[in-house]
Amino acid sequence: MRYFKKQMSLSLAILLIFSLALGSIAMAEGDNSGSPSGEEPSTENSCQTYSSDREHITASHANIVDNGNGTATATFTTTQDCVRVSFSSYAGPADWKPGPGETTIPYLKQVHFDGQSIIYPKAGSYAITVNLPACQPYQLDIYSGDLLTQLGVGAHGNKIKAWKLKLTSTCAGSLIINKHINNIEGAPHAGIAFELWSNDSLFRTGTTDESGILEFKDLPIGSYVLKELTLTGFTTDLTASQQIEVTAASSALKVVINTPKLKLDTACSADPEATRSWIVTNESNIEVPFIWEVPGSNQTGDGKIPGNTSVTLSTYAVQSHSGTFVKAVSTNPNTLTISWGNEKELSLVNDGEACTTPTPTPSTSPTPTPTITPTPTASATPDTSPTPFSTPETTPTVTPSSTTTPTVSPTPEETDIIEIEDDEPPVGGVDDGQEIDSATDTIVDVNDEQVPLDTLPKTGDTSPIPYYLIGAFALTAGFISIRKQKQSK
């Protein structure tokens, strides 16, 4: 009987040792396969309702952190079981700027960007991460209760617990100007100056390059007015107050067309009954091709006008009878139409003006005054010799000498020649203005309404080694006990 009791005791001891060893192993494996620290709590719980009272949440403004990677994280503690907590990011307008004294983005201007609303069955410390707007100003809110995606007057009311603000937009875009002559397929127009205005102030200036392109980079988001300093002799399709909208991370493209200016005038004709004349003037500094026609007739043609010059066109007078060109009648006047560039057109009626031939005015030549040379008069000499005969007196004949008429040659007056030095034509261009420094990020941390959250408890990792040691110790003790029993026999 005694032997039987010993065997029974030994068996029970061995069974107990193996049970402890297996239990320690199972506990160790269970701890290793459990949920990791920081995982969201299971929603399977006994909570019938969840509290939306912010007093059951402990958090401060300092608990909201911008992670610098486009996300933000809020850490907080629930002080009782069954609490719902929400964390949201709200974006302000990209072009919004705080006015004097403004320390928050108006609620009506905020748009919900991202957020989470989570229920916590057990009290403890938790964290929620949400995405941030790329460059707009924003507000981050920790609050109790359900997710709020639309803010009104008062916003979260008595549910908000902590918040964080960024009041400055860092969004930027660009504006590209593509300048052509006559049409979008035309040659690029280089050296054209543009001004960019913002809020009635000159913001930037620039000049198109040899490709006709000008780019304004890193422009703060907003509305601008684009102005062109059009060269003399050209027209532009850009309106005087052209509004340009610059949006976030985008490039606004504006194609601007310049067209040379032409002027059409009538000219006189030698015979208006047969022909009519017009003068076409190019006011620009480039060569302009054009076409012309006389509507109602088969007269048409084309040509090119060099820059800053004029050409004369002559056409037949409008025919009044088939096949015969005669003087135009008042009911069918002669009209010339010229076309060029981007659908530019001029028309002008020529009523026929005869060119008058000026009558030359004879010039009066100076009459030279002749110089009279006196001719000496011969006097009679009496005969002093006595003679018995009467001798007739000889009357001397006065022979006038020829009068020489002098020839007066007019002496031409010397004409002073004045040389005028040609100045180089001015080259347009406006130096690029100083760029206004873009606004820097401003992060506003609002003072805590309550004491900052203490350091979160450290959970640590549970090690299975102690359970293995207990099991090994129990096995060793069992074998030693069995061996002593055998020796005692």
From TrEMBL:
<dbReference type="Pfam" id="PF17802">
    <property type="entry name" value="SpaA"/>
</dbReference>
<feature type="compositionally biased region" description="Acidic residues">
    <location>
        <begin position="413"/>
        <end position="425"/>
    </location>
</feature>
<keyword id="KW-0732">Signal</keyword>
<keyword id="KW-0472">Membrane</keyword>
<keyword id="KW-0812">Transmembrane</keyword>
<feature type="compositionally biased region" description="Pro residues">
    <location>
        <begin position="359"/>
        <end position="373"/>
    </location>
</feature>
<dbReference type="InterPro" id="IPR041033">
    <property type="entry name" value="SpaA_PFL_dom_1"/>
</dbReference>
<feature type="transmembrane region" description="Helical">
    <location>
        <begin position="465"/>
        <end position="482"/>
    </location>
</feature>
<feature type="region of interest" description="Disordered">
    <location>
        <begin position="352"/>
        <end position="428"/>
    </location>
</feature>
<dbReference type="InterPro" id="IPR013783">
    <property type="entry name" value="Ig-like_fold"/>
</dbReference>
<protein>
    <submittedName>
        <fullName>LPXTG-motif cell wall-anchored protein</fullName>
    </submittedName>
</protein>
<feature type="signal peptide">
    <location>
        <begin position="1"/>
        <end position="28"/>
    </location>
</feature>
<feature type="domain" description="SpaA-like prealbumin fold">
    <location>
        <begin position="183"/>
        <end position="258"/>
    </location>
</feature>
<feature type="compositionally biased region" description="Low complexity">
    <location>
        <begin position="374"/>
        <end position="412"/>
    </location>
</feature>
<keyword id="KW-1133">Transmembrane helix</keyword>
